């Protein structure tokens, strides 16, 4: 399983504790006041064109089971970044492509909840190893 950092803003009240989860996962909570998202939303990854690591943001307006997966251009699942029940809030998950043997090109990521689904594209570049 890949390492991921899931950052959640606003679900816990004034907590800045880090919690160690299984599979080398960690959750960081912000001390910002709780703001409930107006609806489900999947953001464009940043950077959209990347060599190894990119971040994917999403909003969840209510506690629900969330699955976020990475897919190749044929629709085959490469990995699952999130598959758990999450509280309402704004999240960001990190995808590290160096853990996989992937060819450069277009990848897709998809969020699926009980009542919402969305897919976006991202582009993996070939890493230039001339200087290494």
Summarize the structure in words.
The protein has 132 residues and is mainly beta. The protein has a single domain, classed as Macroglobulin (MG2) domain (Immunoglobulin-like, Sandwich), CATH 2.60.40. The chain has no helices and eleven strands. The protein has strands at 4-9, 18-21, 25-29, 41-42, 49-50, 53-60, 64-71, 77-86, 89-96, 105-112, 117-124. The strands form two sheets. It has a six-stranded mixed beta sheet with strand order 2-3-1-9-6-4, with no helix packed on it. Strand 7 (64-71) and strand 8 (77-86) form a beta hairpin. 17% of the residues are buried. The model is unreliable at 8-27 (pLDDT under 50).
The amount of helix comes to under 10%
- What CATH architecture do you see? Sandwich
CATH C-level category: Mainly Beta
The CATH homologous superfamily name equals Macroglobulin (MG2) domain
Strand content: over 45%
From the structure above, extract its key features:
132 residues; Immunoglobulin-like; elongated
Outline of this structure?
With 132 residues, this protein is mainly beta. 0% of the residues lie in helices and 52% in strands.
Helix-strand layout with pairing:
Blueprint: E1 4-9, E2 18-21, E3 25-29, E4 41-42, E5 49-50, E6 53-60, E7 64-71, E8 77-86, E9 89-96, E10 105-112, E11 117-124
Parallel strand pairs: 1-3, 5-11
Antiparallel strand pairs: 1-9, 2-3, 4-6, 6-9, 7-8, 7-10, 10-11
